[in-house]
Amino acid sequence: MTYQQTLDYLYARLPMYQRVGAQAYKADLANTIRLCDMLGNPQNSFPSIHIAGTNGKGSVSHMVASILHAAGFRTGLYTSPHLKDFRERIRVNGKMVDKRFVKAFVQKYRDRFIPIQPSFFELTVGMAFEYFREQNVDIAVVESGMGGRLDSTNIITPLVSVITNVSFDHMQFLGDTLEKIAAEKAGIIKPDVPVVIGETQQGLESVFRQKADMCRSEILFADKLFHAIDFRLDKMTLKHSSMDIFRDGINYIKQLISPLAGNYQRKNILTVMGVCEQLNKQGFGLSPSIISTGIKETVKRTGLAGRWQILSRNPLTICDTCHNEGGMSEALVQIATTPHHHLHFVFGVVNDKHLAPILAMLPRDATYYFCKPDIPRGLDAAVLMRDANKAGLKGESYESVQAALHAAQTNACEDDLIFVGGSMFVVAEVV
């Protein structure tokens, strides 16, 4: 098979949740365990960091990987989904997995996949672990796909477990309350493995503490421990400080995240600091200068894209992968504080999204350009427009994301703002 034929096999023959939804979801780890057993359990060949959460886990994963790379560690990074290129999912020191490896892996094991019948995600997890073993990585940063307890990545025993936050998403699989969703994400907490929680959320702290107590795992709430940190560039130390120093810290964070301009990255950086704290307890020696360099060079070192990314400045055009209530809420706050005359919103979603709460929070005075991401799971633009109109949003539907963006660019004045979001798959078509 050629590389393209290999991709066609992966996409066509294996159920892929990002494309087809629920039919690709496996509610247990049996397939992943069988697959990795067949591969000789490559996940046991390297230390790892496991990162879950509703929002921010991709950004945190990329920042942590960048810091470890800056510190001189040969670093694997597994994330999902990809925006443009399948190989974005599997990186070593920021470099995407070699096409030859993808092709050879599928050719070597294709016949042995048949009795296992893995999903697309299960197979790519196994592929990533095999690649990291082959590449002899010093450590791998592994982002969970959905939830945590039953996610295919949850067969690893990491050095540190990380849960960024909890919001409503994938409720048909994870539960219809934040407590149930939190319990699923708490499933990545392992016996005697420290866990970092990014945000202390009302009603959820006890969920994580109970699971950590059961596992005898040290638990660190990053926003509590680092609520007042001296982040100043010349003296970046992990310590409690006064509220005056905390204000200095916020200013430093603004400087530090220049390549990651979303305001929500402040929360993610605190989570990253918590991870670094735990790694340093295990002898990693991540100095303030290394942490600073790693965060500043995240985009350069890992290729992270689609997070409050500026596509154009005339008119100002920004995209963000926000796709659930929590993520959209953060984006809307930043939109409101971004100077502009009128908002043009290119908006598309997937067809299993719990849409009503998102529509309810969107601004009524914007002009909307409804579109369907180019995947089978995308919600028809006309259906989206109908539901949005009922919710008081005004706009037209378009045959594609690019057509919607072109219409917004045509209609927008110089001092307007164009925002592209609603789904990672919409953003994937514009970055």
Describe this structure in words.
Helix 4 (57-70) crosses helix 12. The protein is built from 19 helices and 14 strands. Helix content is 42%, strand content 13%. An 8-stranded mixed β-sheet has the order 4-3-2-5-1-6-7-8, with helices on both faces. A 6-stranded mixed β-sheet has the order 9-10-14-11-12-13. The chain has 2 domains: 3-302, 3-Layer(aba) Sandwich (UDP-N-acetylmuramoyl-L-alanine:D-glutamate ligase); 309-427, Protein-Tyrosine Phosphatase, Chain A (Alpha-Beta Complex). The protein is globular, with a radius of gyration of 21 Å. It is α/β, with parallel strands linked by helices and 431 residues long. Residues 17-22 and 228-255 have low confidence and may be disordered. It has helices at 3-13, 17-20, 30-38, 57-70, 99-113, 120-134, 171-174, 178-185, 205-214, 222-225, 243-256, 265-281, 288-296, 298-302, 325-337, 356-361, 381-390, 401-411, 424-427; strands at 48-52, 75-78, 90-92, 95-96, 139-143, 160-163, 195-197, 219-221, 309-313, 316-319, 343-347, 367-370, 394-397, 417-421. Strand 3 and strand 4 form a beta hairpin.
Summarize the structure.
The chain is 42% helix and 13% strand. It has 431 residues and is α/β, with parallel strands linked by helices.
Helix percent reads: 40-55%
User: Rounded to an integer, what's the Rg over CA atoms?
Assistant: 21 Å
Largest sheet: 8 strands, mixed
What spatial form do the alpha-carbon principal axes imply?
globular
CATH homolog superfamily of the largest domain: Mur-like, catalytic domain
Low-confidence stretches: 17-22, 228-255
Strand content: 5-15%
Q: Give the termini distance in whole angstroms.
A: 29 Å
- In the sheet with the most strands, the strands line up as 4-3-2-5-1-6-7-8
Structurally, how many domains make up the residues? 2
What's the CATH class of the largest domain, please?
Alpha Beta
